[in-house]
Write a structure and sequence with these properties.
The complex is a heterodimer.
Chain A lengths: L1 H14 L2 H6 L8 H13 L1 H23 L4 H16 L4
Helix pairs in contact in A: 3-4
Chain B lengths: L15 H10 L3 H12 L2 H17 L9 H17 L10 H5 L13 H20 L2 H12 L4 H8 L3 H23 L8
Helix pairs in contact in B: 2-3, 2-4, 3-4, 4-8, 6-9, 7-9, 8-9
The chains are: A mainly alpha, B mainly alpha.
């Protein structure tokens, strides 16, 4: 009983950190101790590992949309030319 | 030495700070165009917005501390957008329709793996429906962070909200997307992944 309650607490603790773990964003880093504890839990908890897998799947699917709508290369070239003109002091 | 190109002699050597401006902003052009398209909903308007942003950034280069160039440029982009369109704080993104009709391109330049093709075929329709059902403020954060790959701080600069707000909206949005996808996959006739 106590063991189950402890595991539930760890699941709750992990759930609150999963997205920060996956994003690894510099604005909200996990400490190395948090990462170690989370990875230890994920190795033994099938349910939390499944949630992590779902987050990864979602991230890959959304990233696919970015690659499906590339930026217009002609626009990039024109903006780059403007930047070069500004940097070289050329009038437009 | 003056930063103003008009005040430099024509034979004067290039100001290293002007070259530094180009070095700082050029790697960010694609991101700015993507986010510009998010804010304006159009490639043409995005280019106009980014060109104006570059001119304003050039004028403000003396006040740039050299740290976080992307966030600095995105802040100028947002303010420029506000000035050009006299809009309120942008809580939504305009390229949802563009993304909504885009075909996923898993793997970029490489041929998609069988797994990625299956992912696109199985997940994409349900994901589009789930995204469309999200509140616009939540969808904006997902588009900026998960689709356009911005950091929390960069997304905060675009939407003019604190990083904590980005994190909380992102967490709630992803939870809703996951729940919607789980509900879809458990529908009769749908194979569970």
């Amino acid at each position: 009983m106590i063991r189950t309650a402890r595991r539930m607490l760890t699941c709750h603790w992990s759930a609150r950190r999963l997205q920060r773990y996956l994003d690894a964003d510099p604005a909200a880093p996990l400490t190395s101790r948090e990462v170690a504890r989370l990875e230890e839990h994920l190795a033994t908890c099938e349910r939390c590992a499944d949630v992590l897998g779902e987050h990864r799947l979602l991230s890959r699917a959304l990233g696919g949309w970015r690659r499906g709508t590339p930026v217009d290369h002609a626009s990039v070239r024109r903006v780059r030319a403007l930047v070069e003109d500004l940097a070289e002091g050329r009038e437009r | 030495m003056s930063l103003d190109p008009q005040r430099r002699g024509t034979d004067a050597p290039p100001d290293p700070r002007l070259r530094a401006f180009a070095d700082v902003v050029e790697p960010e052009i694609e991101v700015l165009l993507r986010v510009g398209r998010s804010l304006t909903g159009s490639d043409t308007d995005a280019e106009d917005l980014v060109q104006e942003t570059m001119i304003r950034a050039f004028g403000a280069i003396d006040r740039f501390d050299g740290r976080h160039p992307r966030a600095w440029l995105l802040t100028i982009l947002r303010r420029t957008h506000l000035n050009m369109h006299r809009r309120q704080r942008p809580s939504t993104v305009g390229d949802w329709e563009v993304l909504h009709h885009a075909r996923p391109a898993f793997g970029g330049a490489h041929a998609p793996s069988a797994e990625d093709r299956a992912l696109a075929e199985d997940l994409d329709p349900a994901l589009r429906t789930a995204m469309a059902a999200l509140d616009e403020r939540f969808r904006a954060v997902v588009v900026l962070v998960d689709v356009h790959d911005l950091s929390y701080a960069d997304a905060a600069a675009v939407l003019d909200v604190p990083v904590g707000t980005i994190m909380s909206r992102l967490s709630r949005a992803r939870t809703r997307l996951r729940a919607a996808l789980a509900a879809d996959s458990s529908r009769p006739g749908k194979e569970t992944r």
